[in-house]
Design a protein that fits this description.
By secondary structure, the chain is α+β, with helices and mostly antiparallel strands. The chain contains 9 helices and 4 strands; from the N terminus they run αβαααααβααββα. 43% of the residues lie in helices and 8% in strands. The protein has a 4-stranded mixed beta sheet with strand order 1-2-4-3, covered by helices on one side. The mean pLDDT is 85.
Length: 262
């Protein structure tokens, strides 16, 4: 089910880059039943994957890295600071709209032993949605309501346009963008339970990609002092996944990361 139709994206989780390219060749086609899928020629993502990165220009946006001044951050992708918040507003608003149909009657989970239609609505949505989903629905409903629409949702759409333009300007000079995937390394299962802010900030490096509608690929690039993996994100131009796979494959082979052990 869709959470935020203009932001949701699917992508394979695979053992290595070449496997990822092979899976993408199978799934990157238009689905006539999916209003968010695109009719676009399906390239052979594995073709030319071994051509290397000679001659490619890769941008390293400094605002993704902590040890720089605010002046430097604002000079590269000036609207990135607002991207994460704008993405949250848009996703919550779209979640509120998309999940409104799950009423326990025609769509979604239906609570048992209900004595009235009101009970079906109330109990089905209370039992069928978790705390975070409920939080997003409530916030999304507020963002779309009179008095808040212009202040939050409309402004977020404007920020989205500015972010798209920022990326467009970078891709006029560079072939790819390299950033961290997350601001921290992995944490233990359940360790951040109840810490909504830390979890919310976990996708601060990736949310702008969804906002701009660009392809991105994440792969391990090392480990921290505890042996936990560090993620590297490569961002490409729209529909340029083939180049993403080529660059990621070259890195994987030269860094000896993700090598098969079977």
């Amino acid at each position: 089910m869709a959470l935020a139709s203009s932001l949701d994206q699917i992508g394979p989780l695979t053992k290595d880059v070449k496997d990822c390219a092979m899976v993408m060749e199978s799934i990157a086609v238009q689905d006539k039943w999916d209003a968010t899928s695109v009719c676009h020629p399906n390239p052979e993502f594995t073709k030319g994957i071994e051509n290397g990165v000679q001659g490619l220009k890769i941008a390293l946006p400094k605002e993704f890295f902590a040890a720089v001044s605010d002046e430097v951050k604002n000079a590269v992708l000036p609207h990135l600071k607002a991207a994460h918040s704008a993405c949250f507003v848009i996703s919550a608003a779209e979640a509120s709209s998309n999940l409104g149909k799950f009423d326990g009657i025609k769509f979604g989970y239906r609570a048992q032993n209900c004595s009235s239609v009101d009970d079906i609505y109330k109990l089905s949505r209370s039992q069928g949605f978790g705390k975070e989903v409920k939080r997003r629905i409530l916030l999304g409903t507020m963002f779309l309501s009179t008095g808040y629409y212009e202040k939050y949702y409309s402004k977020s759409l404007q920020i989205r346009t500015l972010i798209c333009n920022d990326f467009k300007n970078i891709f006029e000079r560079y072939d790819l963008i390299l950033t961290p995937t997350t601001p921290t390394t992995a944490y233990k299962l359940g360790e951040k339970q109840g810490d909504s802010l830390d979890i919310f900030m976990g996708d601060i490096c990736t949310s702008s990609v969804n906002m701009a509608g660009l392809p991105a690929l994440s792969l391990p690039c090392g480990a921290d002092s505890q042996g936990l993996p560090v993620g590297m994100q490569l961002i490409g131009k729209a529909f340029d996944e083939q180049l993403l796979f080529r660059a990621a494959y070259a890195y994987e082979q030269n860094a000896n990361i993700g090598q098969r052990k079977d």
